[in-house]
Design brief:
With about 350 residues, the chain is mostly helical. Helices cover about 75% and strands about 0% of the residues. The chain is globular.
Length: about 350
């Protein structure tokens, strides 16, 4: 019986899920009173710059971590179905166009990030997935994932989350389709093009509920354990912006009236090394200070979809000309998104 605390989620998965949901909801309900009480205990005035920054940090940190833990756990259970092999099989042998849409959609529900870009890319090429379809998947997977959508929903509401979902899928589908139309397969690295093709097949069987719960727990350990430093850094920067940056200054730099704000946001975003969990609290603070929604969305998309580390990783399988084309096409789509939404919202 000594091993019961470790293995009981697998032995009683329904009981574990019920108790976990109750604990999560209880902690979430305490966020506002606990954060206000903690600020009240500190030797700072609540309406001061420091008080506003501290309340932002003490409220958003546990909120983001709770949202992230809950959604990563649920998506970990869902993702137990979408293994790399199954994903390759679903995309292999399909025509471009519809396949780009399918690839972008799979990117939303699959747990792959920039660190797995190269092995995924190689597996897709070996399975005969077209280059443009592969790139649609690789754009959507980090940019429009469950972490981004959940944090956007929790911080801004469902309208902004759905807006970002539609924009991200649109950029991923169009960019992948356009690159596919350019016929740039010759700009894959030679060793990638010369790899033998393998047939991707769907795996048989479906995991039991206990296995899905175990997959959810594993996803929480892996993903939350990896991104929490970025969350703290992002919320810290957001707290400083929220407490100390004047609204008129931010509106002048990233407002809709400054035509150059969108390309500047993209240029700033590309070299940043972050992810959705780290950048969304910064986005929240920028919007609260008067930054335009289109500009902020362009900044967020460039950080997540065109991060410099991912481009360095992709250099192992793509030649420079294809990487430059990839960046140019995706950046053009992001710029268009920024300008359109600044003009209509």
């Amino acid at each position: 019986m000594h091993d019961l605390p470790i293995h009981w989620p697998q032995r009683s998965p329904r009981l574990f899920l019920g108790l976990a949901a109750l604990c999560w909801a209880g902690l979430y309900a305490l966020l506002i009173p606990v954060s206000e009480a903690l600020v009240a205990l500190l030797p700072v005035a609540r309406d001061s710059h420091a008080g506003a920054a501290l309340q932002f940090f003490l409220y958003d940190t546990p909120k983001v971590l709770l949202l992230l833990t809950g959604v990563v756990f649920v998506m970990g259970m869902v993702n137990s179905y979408f293994t790399p092999e199954r994903t390759r099989a679903l995309l292999a042998g399909r025509r471009e166009g519809a396949a780009n849409a399918m690839a972008a959609g799979l990117g939303v529900v699959t747990p792959f990030c920039s660190c797995s870009a190269v092995p995924l890319f190689i597996g897709f090429v070996q399975a005969g997935v077209p280059l443009g379809v592969t790139l649609s998947f690789l754009i959507a997977a980090p940019m429009v994932n469950e972490v981004a959508l959940t944090l956007l929903f929790g911080l801004f509401g469902w309208r902004v989350a759905l807006l970002y979902l539609g924009l991200g899928l649109g950029v991923a589908m169009v960019a992948g389709w356009l690159i596919g139309r350019l016929g740039m397969e010759r700009y894959l690295e030679d060793w990638v093009r010369e790899m033998p093709r393998v047939r991707a097949t769907l795996e048989a069987g479906s995991p039991a509920l206990a296995d899905r719960v175990d997959a959810g727990c594993h996803a929480v350990r892996e993903i939350v354990g990896r991104v929490w430093p970025y969350i703290l850094a992002g919320i810290g920067i957001g707290a400083l912006i929220h407490g100390y940056v004047p609204e008129d200054f931010m509106a002048a730099i990233m407002g809709r009236e400054a035509w150059w704000s969108v390309p500047l946001a993209v240029i700033i975003g590309v070299p940043m090394y972050s992810n959705a969990a780290g950048v969304i609290p910064i986005v929240q603070a920028l919007l609260a200070k008067g930054a335009a929604l289109g500009t902020v969305l362009a900044f967020m998309m460039s950080v997540i979809a065109l991060s410099l580390p991912e481009l360095v990783i992709l250099r192992k399988v793509l030649k420079i000309r294809l990487i430059v084309t990839f960046v140019a096409v995706v950046a053009s789509g992001i710029l268009l998104v920024g300008y359109v939404f600044n003009s209509v919202l």
